[in-house]
Amino acid sequence: MSDPLHILAILAIAATVIVLAIGIGGFGAGGAFNAKYGNKMMRLRILFQFIAVVLFLGYLYLRNQGGQ
């Protein structure tokens, strides 16, 4: 848990969940927030999700390289 890449991956996953929750909440509420930020929130979610996957795969790769 002290590996910086592991911590970054967890933070990226948390950011993805937070942005997803805000986006879904805005979509459910509708109104001006959803009209203005709905697509932006989902694009931001995709970006954070991509970063989280890359960091997580990097962590797994580096962890397995150290064991061989």
Automatic annotation (TrEMBL):
Keywords: Membrane, Transmembrane, Transmembrane helix
Regions that span the bilayer: 6-32, 44-62
Positions of the HIG1 domain: 1-68
This protein's name: HIG1 domain-containing protein
Record-linked InterPro entries: Hypoxia_induced_domain
Keyword Membrane tagged: yes
NCBIfam families per UniProt: twin_helix
Keyword Membrane part of the UniProt annotation: yes
